[in-house]
Design goal:
529 residues; alpha+beta; 7-stranded mixed sheet; 6-stranded mixed sheet; 28% helix; globular
Length: 529
């Protein structure tokens, strides 16, 4: 299978208040002050797929391979690799001089243990794992991956740019159960996490790792030379969008990852601020239902909810009426890509009809089970979705409990598989880079492994067979045919309800430059202007 079938969609997607030193002080240039999309509560990017935790991961950790702007895997911690003639033995040689933040050398044993743990949580890794006979170290600098059968997309799996990224950690930490967070933050990336300065809900601090040796080639997305120009990076957690925008305008922070859409016109008028789309692939908004518990363990009830969803309501709730930055997209693969087919299922085809949804709900046998929507109040690109859904479901006649909290609490709670009466949940909303859902290999939205899968725990053995068939397909034509079948089955089963596709304009002061394009904000390349 040719790699171009995995990455072809990127071009189409691209078309579609805290006191600080004054500007004149050298200390200001020594610290990059960044306002992330949400509070950082989970520190383990393998344990959770939350974007803010993956962003944290890119500061602290590194990967064996990473993608460039064309989504081609490039060596990162790796010096290079060899593959046996039968395609079943991969040997990856580490770069010289790699060290963890605790001073210990990075060894092939660390890589083997890290990838074994990662493969238990990541959707792509879960496809790779059954083909792996052993992750082992041939010597301290040579990782050996022995396969039971050829897996041509192995490097694509190790280089994937979105959750869960295959970050490398020390072997002693990688021994942690994949369903439990690691106890320490120790990586080998360009920045060290300062545990003693971490205050969840207020500040996250990183300092340049002097022992990090960047690659010599220019940085390109997540690959290449990750040069840390700022000795120190501070994340300021400012949940109120107006406060964050005011801090940016006054120079108290340098970069706001996701300014509220209502504030974009004001920021655009400032001569000291730049607005830019850093992720040309855009993002997809999602509603995820809990398939393990009632009422959404009933397919007919899930289908009734899908019939009631009007994507335009969700997009307008977070981005307003400016349709230059959002579009309806009813596909579970990004629209504008080879697999992004819409209206494959009557559940997603317009027009929307609340009366039709009410009739479907009545026929489903729904009898007033509580629907608990866990929803963040501090995340402007997610919180309004929960409020829209609560209103729609109440109008359908469902018993709705809108459980609002901070995003960190949502991230912690959505892992729970118990009924709502025991702290579980029925619905949560989120979004992710379109690249994370580009095809069946990388997407968690369509896979159906049940309890071992992504939160919501959709299960369908037939879906698993189709995904494997897609992986084994001999050509692009067969892949496209299987992709449509997967897309339709996921829509019919209501594996995930898509809510629309959109683009984010980040905002930063003109006193910094060098921001990298990519699937999320990267800390390297950014420097004082």
């Amino acid at each position: 299978m040719e790699r171009r079938t995995l990455i072809r969609g990127i071009a189409a997607l691209g078309g579609a208040m805290l006191a600080s030193p004054s500007v004149a002080q050298p200390a200001k240039a020594a610290t990059l002050r960044f306002v992330p999309q949400a509070n950082l509560t989970a520190l383990d990017p393998i344990w959770t797929s939350a974007i803010v935790t993956q962003m944290h991961g890119y500061h602290v950790y590194d990967t064996l391979y990473a993608v460039d702007g064309q989504l081609r895997p490039r060596p990162q911690m790796a010096e290079g690799h060899t593959v046996s003639d039968n395609g079943r033995v991969w040997r990856i040689r580490l770069r010289e001089g790699l060290r963890f933040h605790d001073g210990e050398p990075v060894r092939a044993q660390d890589c083997a243990a890290s990838l074994a743990r990662w493969s238990k949580r990541d959707p792509f890794g879960q496809l790779l794992a059954p083909a792996v006979e052993a992750w082992r170290a041939a010597d301290d600098r040579t990782l050996e991956i022995r396969l039971t059968r050829p897996f041509p997309l192995l490097l694509d799996a190790l280089a994937k740019p979105d959750a869960n990224v295959a970050f490398i950690i020390p072997e002693r930490l990688a021994a942690t159960d994949a369903n439990v967070q690691v106890s320490e933050v120790v990586g080998s990336g360009p920045y060290r996490f300062l545990k003693d300065e971490f205050v969840s809900g207020s500040r996250v601090t990183y300092t340049k790792f002097e022992g990090y040796v960047p690659r010599q080639e220019p940085s390109d997305w997540a690959s290449g030379g990750k040069v840390a120009h700022f000795p120190r990076i501070e994340w300021h957690i400012l949940p109120d969008p107006a406060t964050a925008a005011a801090a940016l305008q006054s120079g108290e922070v340098d970069w706001v990852e996701q300014p509220l859409s209502d504030l974009i016109p004001t920021l655009a008028r400032s001569r000291s601020i730049t607005l830019e789309v850093l992720n040309p692939a855009g993002f997809m908004s999602l509603m995820r239902l809990n398939h393990l518990q009632g009422p959404f363990n009933n397919l007919k009830t899930r289908q009734a909810v899908a019939l009631a969803v009007n994507q335009a309501d969700y997009m307008r709730a977070i981005l307003g009426d400016d349709q230059s930055v959002w579009r309806e997209c009813r596909s579970l693969f990004p629209c504008g890509t080879p697999l992004g087919a819409e209206d494959l299922s009557e559940l997603t085809s317009p027009p929307r009809s609340l009366d039709r949804a009410k009739a479907a709900l009545a026929a489903s046998g729904y009898r007033g089970d509580k629907v608990t929507i866990i929803n963040p109040t501090d995340f402007p690109l997610i919180g309004p979705h929960g409020q829209v859904t609560a209103d729609v479901l109440r109008r359908l006649g469902m018993n709705v409990d809108l459980a609002e909290s901070d995003w960190g609490t949502v991230v912690q709670r959505r892992v729970r598989q118990e009924p709502v009466e025991q702290g579980g949940w029925s619905i949560f909303h989120t979004y992710g880079s379109s690249l994370a859902y580009l095809n069946p290999a990388v997407s968690s939205l369509v896979k159906g492994p049940g309890r071992s899968g992504w939160f919501g725990w959709y299960e369908n053995p037939r879906m698993q067979e189709l995904v494997q068939a897609w992986m084994d397909a001999p050509d692009a034509e067969r892949q496209k045919s299987l992709g449509s079948e997967i897309n339709k089955l996921a829509q019919d089963d209501v594996a995930t309800i898509p809510l629309g596709q959109f683009f984010i304009r980040t905002a930063y002061r003109k006193s910094i430059t060098g921001l990298m394009k990519g699937s999320m904000p990267y800390p390297w390349g950014v420097r004082p202007f």
